[in-house]
Sequence to fold (188 residues):
Amino acid sequence: MLLAHFPVLRIAIFPDGREWIMGRLLPKNLTENQKNGIVATLSTPEFYRSLPSHKTGNYLSAWLAKTSAQKLDAQEAILVDAALNWLETSTGNLWGWLDGCWWTPPIRAGILPGVVRSQLVEWLLKKQLLVREEPWTPELVKGFEAIAYSNSVVEIIPLRTVIWHSGKLEYNPHHSCFQQLRIFFIAL
Fold:
């Protein structure tokens, strides 16, 4: 019944076997954002994911980070740890392109594992493409040619600008590397 009104369904299954099914709309300007990228800002370390190895349904910190980003005219927030290493966005997992290789923060850094992230890593490796799961230090992120985030609803959204404490970092939202990731979603 919900599919008649919503293109996205979110299903939560509780430990006692009960289910909660919610309908969601696609984000506004999704096609435009997938094509031309968006602006993101770094959050403060206070907006960390609590219990990242568990999908608790508690998205308060991510929601607060994204709300703070929107006040700065950014569409997304990048969550960071106490050392200001980039972890993930408020709604997805990060992907960077550098030296012919995909980079993504490791699970051990305290990110949500992400169903799409794990499938994408596996698919890239099967295609014999390089994937490095390394901490995204403030120095590393300056070297990326392109950055995007992924989740099961938006697929891949490039980040064209990241606002942070010392100014802005600019990335290429039209980089040819994104075609590799888009092929994954076409194949689904």
Remarks:
- The chain has one domain: 27-187.
